[in-house]
Amino acid sequence: MTKPVLEIQNLVTEFPTRNGIFRAVDDVSLTVEAGRTLCVVGESGSGKSVTARSVLQIVDNPGRIAQGKILLHRHHTARRQGNEDDIVDLAALPPRGPEIRAIRGRDVAMIFQEPMSALSPVHTIGNQIVEAIRLHETISKKDAMDRAVELLRQVEIPTPEKAVKRYTFEYSGGMRQRAMIAMAIACNPSVLIADEPTTALDVTIQAEIIDLLRRLQQETGMAMMFITHDMGVVAEIADEVAVMYRGKVVERGAPLPIFETPKEAYTQRLLGAVKQLDEPSPRRLAMRAASPPGATALKVEGLAKHFYLSAGALGLRKETFVAVDSASLELREGENLGIVGESGSGKTTLGRCIQGVHETTRGAIRFTGRNGQTTDLAKLKEHELRAAWREIRMVFQDPFSSLNPRMTVGQIIGEPLLLLRTHSKQGLRKRVNELLDVVGLPQSAYDRYPHAFSGGQRQRIGIARAIAPEPRVIIADEATSALDVSLRIQILDLLLDLQERMGLSFLFISHDIAVIRYFCDRIAVMHRGKIVETGDTEAVCSNPAHPYTRSLLSAVPVPDPRQRGKQVRIRYRADTESAA
Amino acid sequence: MTAPDTNSSLPEATGHIPEVEQSSQWKLMWWAFRRHRVAVLGGVIVLTLYFVAAFAEFLAPFAPQSTSSQNVYHPPQMPRLFYDTAEDGSGFGLHVRAFTRERDPFTLQTTYVPNPDRVIFISFFAKGTPYRLWGLIPMERRLFTATNPEDRFYLFGADRLGRDMYSRVIFGTRVSMTIGLVGVALSLILGVTLGGISGYLGGVTDAVIQRFVELVLALPTIPIWLGLSAALPQDWSPLTRYFAITAILSLVGWTELARVVRGRFLALRSEDFVIAARLDGATRRRVILRHMAPSMASHIIASVTLAIPLMIIAETSLSFLGLGLQPPMVSWGVLLREAQNVQSISQAPWLFIPGAAVVVAVLALNFLGDGIRDAADPYSEVQTS
Fold first, then answer.
1. What is the fold, at CATH topology level, of the domain defined by A1-107+192-278?
2. What is the model's pLDDT at position A242?
3. Which CATH superfamily is domain B46-51+167-384 in?
4. Contact B203, B98 (CB under 8 A)
């Protein structure tokens, strides 16, 4: 018994560019049924978001729907509004006309990835929900406000009577997404389109939002189109899966067959990468068996970092923000240490303090250099740190902002060598070409600018720059977070490769447990500026000791539909996140 | 960003590399700028104006100061090609119709009526009154002038002393357009230095400089200009006065630039690639000059282009009020002073032509500046396309 609410038939959405027309969505057909969830999954640029935006005709300029139909069957919704033949082709409606506007928000609602930019900063949450209701229904402001309070209660926002009067900035990330959802369901839509609603959130909050969406769907019977790149999330909520690649749907079906017997080569590749990431890298285990980690290379003792927020008048009153509150670590030679934590846990600040980008407030960073001497980096001035910076290098998270767009790749990679003055002009070029080889880029990259490269290739350039002066320790801050799953594995394998060749040690900072599990020998879990647990990765992952680690691990979605509902979620609330 | 990360998508080392991948920021900026049609048009007009300013002596048919009591408030004449007259016969050649001056016997008002019998021929590269190009090279030929050195013609009409407005507007271009350039150059030096120090050192220095900038911005500009210009000694030579006026104008103009520079500096300082450069072992000097300056240059150029028209308008206003440049120096503002009374509006509306020149120049510079500003960060688009 199928009841399609939203039917996308042979949709083509095009973007005219300078080099001809680019088909972002190419002949896509999808069906969303009442009370069921369709997951559209794909990597960046696969056209999944454009498909979703086409439904509501809110594709960014100059994109336009070129072909196809988007049929909305009103009578198939749970509330059975409309007649048997009340079928609207959304693609045929003018994008700025009143018809499509009446459908947006009432029949088809959408929630976005970044709730901060989707909510107005100058209106209270309550007023925004009232506005959404009164656009489609003629009811008094007071009744609408009562409904808003009820909606906030429905999305589990504590003390909704007070919360309606608050502004967006007073809400945390997870709360904002809840408010967004409340607004989206305000008019009981038949279809809810969720475009990566949990990507910007921490895993523990992601798990809560997914629970919430699932509960709302059960209560209202709305159809849901859920767009994501995370196979774990797909396994968690999908009733049907559509895999997109380069604008086309390559495979469609129920989650079990797709996860267990994928037919298309692309789906196999994608799931292969996901499954690989769920286990420790066999390569790493083999390397450790051959040569176990050596002596201590870096030892951090009681490191603390306070930021001064405001100096007050005349600098008398000082407000401080404690980003890192006493962290101790030990990194051995040839070892990978992972630092895992959610946003705001202080892991990035810790990395930057160890590197010496930020001055530390307290504590010691004992680094044993190649010459066997141990120095405390925390006490050095910037010009004294330069020697250490040759041996401790950094790989950045964002492959776009970390490469100077105005320098060629050769200049970027050669910069540390040029400053060391160890190579002649020809020697430098030769060495940079060697480095390009090592990271798997062609030598023709030398004279090109970073804008010629994709995200993964740029990250390789960043790695080449990091290893150029033959360092001993590399601090990789979310080095793979900006990349798609299949690229993550490639980059992590490249790093392991370099480790074997050059005897590097890695301090790997990430929020992604799967990546840490694949790459790191030991793990340090950070929460609110403190390291709550340290240990061997496998030991911590299979038997976490600290309650926070337990809650973190239980929130990570498992990319296996058979595990759905079996995992017991543990909530860890140490005075946190409670009232807005 | 949409490109898949397979190494095969990169051409082989020997293969052809698309030009865009090896293009520096200036090339990308040029491409982005070229797509901005109005800005390109503005750029062409601005270049033309500066060309006119550079070769004013050659381009003007007559000397700007040469008076003619016979031709007071002579109306503009249209250049024509075919003629058929009693005195000069008929034929083909560039000329203007001659006018005869008549005086109304009752009101004694002077009027000019076209004289059907006579034409004034114009020839290109003909010898006119001798002059020195840039005050140095003695020359006689002009781009075009009256074939008969005794004749005069007035494309834009004549003023109350019978001086050719067309030649005067051309000479005015030189002063008005360069006063913008020189003034902005002064502001640029002040703005970049103070803004750079402010953004680089931060802390107390930053606070002091920023408060000073705010103080300068809070001063009402017109009274300050008026006061300072009125304080200039009357016996200064026109050239000294010219530089004094530019200095006065840039005293206010630098603040905006200082803020732009400081803002860019602060924004760039926390960029990942700047931190990366620090970690590469670059000294502070190198970080600023090699890594940060190129990203700021394009934005500074855009702000400078948008600052020039403000200078031009300021100079015009001051001179119009009689407090800027003084005759015999010729600028658009000085010329507009002639159009201050009712008589000129009724009798000689062509005296407003220098105003049109100001409008054209300011609009062209604004379009150009807008185009440069939009093209100044070519990477924001490269990333998303």
1. Rossmann fold (3.40.50)
2. 92
3. MetI-like (1.10.3720.10)
4. no
- A444–B15: do the CB atoms touch at under 8 Å? yes
DSSP secondary structure of A50-81: HHHHHHTT-PPTT-EEEEEEEEEEGGGSTT--
Q: How far is CA B248 from the centre of its chain?
A: 18
Task: Going residue by residue through chain B, which has 385 residues, state the pLDDT in tens, using 9 for 90 and above.
Answer: 333 444 334 443 345 566 677 777 777 778 777 888 888 888 888 898 888 888 878 777 777 777 777 777 778 887 777 777 777 677 777 777 777 777 878 877 777 877 777 777 777 777 777 777 777 777 777 777 777 777 778 878 777 777 888 888 888 888 888 887 888 888 888 888 888 888 877 778 888 888 888 888 888 877 877 787 778 787 877 778 778 878 877 877 788 888 888 888 888 887 888 888 888 888 888 888 888 888 887 778 888 888 888 888 888 888 888 777 777 778 888 888 877 777 777 777 787 888 888 888 888 888 888 888 777 776 654 433 3
Per-residue pLDDT tens for A93-126?
888 888 888 888 888 888 888 777 788 888 888 8
* ipTM confidence: 0.78
For chains A and B, what is the number of CB pairs under 8 angstroms? 116
Query: What contacts B303, CB < 8 A, 6 or more positions away?
Result: B256, B257, B260, B369, B373
Residue that the structure tokens 């030009």 belong to = B19
Task: Tell me which DSSP letter residue A569 carries.
Answer: P
> Domain spanning A282-557: which CATH class is it, in words?
alpha beta
A44·B280 Cβ contact <8 A: no
Among B5, B11, B277, the residue with its CB nearest the CB of A487 is B5
What is chain B's mean pLDDT, rounded?
A: 78
Distances (CA, A) of A389 to A355, A394, A545, B275, B280: 7, 9, 35, 12, 7
Q: Does B234 touch chain A (CB under 8 A)?
A: no
Chain A: residue whose CA lies nearest to B17: A444
User: What pTM did the predictor assign?
Assistant: 0.77
Which residues of chain B are in CATH 1.10.3720.10 domains?
Answer: 46-51+167-384
End-to-end CA distance of chain A: 43
d(CA A276, CA A519): 11
Of B1, B11, B385, the CB nearest to A44: B1
What is chain A's alpha carbon radius of gyration, rounded to the nearest angstrom? 26
Residues with Cβ within 8 Å of A436's Cβ and at least 6 positions away in sequence, in order, are A409, A413, A442, A443, A445, A446, A464
pLDDT at A28 over 80: yes
Q: Is B203 on the interface with A (CB under 8 A)?
A: no
What is the C-alpha to C-alpha distance for residues B224 and B252, in angstroms, rounded to an integer? 9
Domain layout of chain A by residue ranges: 1-107+192-278, 282-557
Q: Is A393 on the interface with B (CB under 8 A)?
A: yes
Q: Which residues pair with A364 in a beta bridge?
A: A301
